[in-house]
Amino acid sequence: MARTFQTGFEGGSKEVCVSTNASVTVSAAVTRGTWSGYSLDITGAPSAADVAVIPLGGSFSEFYFGLGFWLQAFNADLQFGGNNDVAFHWTAGGLLTAGGPTDGAAFGTGITAISLGTWHYLEAYIKIAGAGGRCTAKMDGIQQFDFTGDTLYVATAVDAMQFSSSFDYLDDVVVNDTTGAVNNGWPGDTKIVGLFPTAAGDSAQLQRGGADSGANWSQVEEKPPNSETDYVFETANTDYDLYNITNLAEAGDISAIAVWTFNRKVDGGPGNLAHRIKHSGTEYTGTDKGLPNTYDYNYHIWERDPSDSTVWSDADIDALQIGVVTKA
Fold first, then answer.
1. What domains appear along the chain, each with residue ranges and CATH number?
2. Prediction pTM value
3. pLDDT, tens only, 206-233
């Protein structure tokens, strides 16, 4: 697949990040638009280079990313790799620069000055290589620079993006690698919409734990997740739930859907789950995901309608059921 990660923080939780400073939270008050329920709020974080670390969905030497951001100061840094192998920075005049750990503008300086205290959208393509490397970026859809040459410092591949405390808010983060037939290039200015369970689907095999709401779907619809307050669980393998979800109110091309779960295992043995959808009468199951010992997120991405490999339509999403199946 080519879409490796996407989040709008719509679950109302910062736990989709690899790590964050304790003061980082989510905001329902400041978001990119009416489609967005939450953004990642970094406003209270102390001065540091890695107050929020967001995964790329794999380790890559070549990838595209896009994200909405709101700056509180122009000394913000967005870094890739433990040695800041590729880093983006904004000058005092609001211009984007990119470079390595010792030469911050070696890959280029932008042409469009941005404003503080408002939303912008950054896209970039990075290829890490000693010869034939590349770094090119767009700000609000406008090309800023395009560097070809040596982009290799230490790491030949990176797996996360690190944000400094000068970012106020982040939203609508997407990552594409360069494989596959779709989502293998510039993501474009992307909206991420959260849709949540609203009614029972065609299977309710899992058990209810914690406070019993009377239905499986209403054990899992809250945002942010309430962990042990109410939940579904199962000790047997291959049991599964399906849930009907909110209708999609936003119009536009759908580049991918991601089904997310907040989950853990409760014993010392192996434990897995797989995400499942039901569409046009057929069930489709994602890859097995290992369960951690403490609560964390798992997800599976379907880039196209699996019944015919076409772009998802609004009607497809409105009729979709989502769920999870237990695995050994």
1. 3-177 (2.60.120.200), 197-327 (2.60.120)
2. 0.96
3. 999 999 999 999 999 999 999 899 999 9
